[in-house]
Design brief:
Length: about 80
């Protein structure tokens, strides 16, 4: 491996990538559920928590995408 990296760092990258792959579909489902709940509610007190959930799930999904890109970049640089 380039730069004398150990197999442990490659294993950590692969583990992180696998975790992100597992979490991403759940975040998408969470976002869809929050949108459905928000659409179904008419009162502000009904819609606020799901909308907050929607924004949080979007933020997590964006962070997961960024982490996946970083892992891909690091893995490519180790080859």
């Amino acid at each position: 491996m380039a730069g004398g990296r150990s197999d442990g760092s490659q294993d950590a990258l692969e583990c992180a990538a696998a975790l992100l792959d597992e979490v991403q579909p759940r975040l998408i489902a969470l976002e869809a559920l929050a949108a459905l709940i928000a659409d179904a509610g008419n009162a502000e007190e009904v819609r606020s928590p799901p909308l907050t959930l929607l924004y949080v799930s979007r933020g997590l999904a964006e962070k997961a995408d960024a982490a996946r890109a970083l892992i891909g970049t690091r893995a490519a640089s180790q080859e």
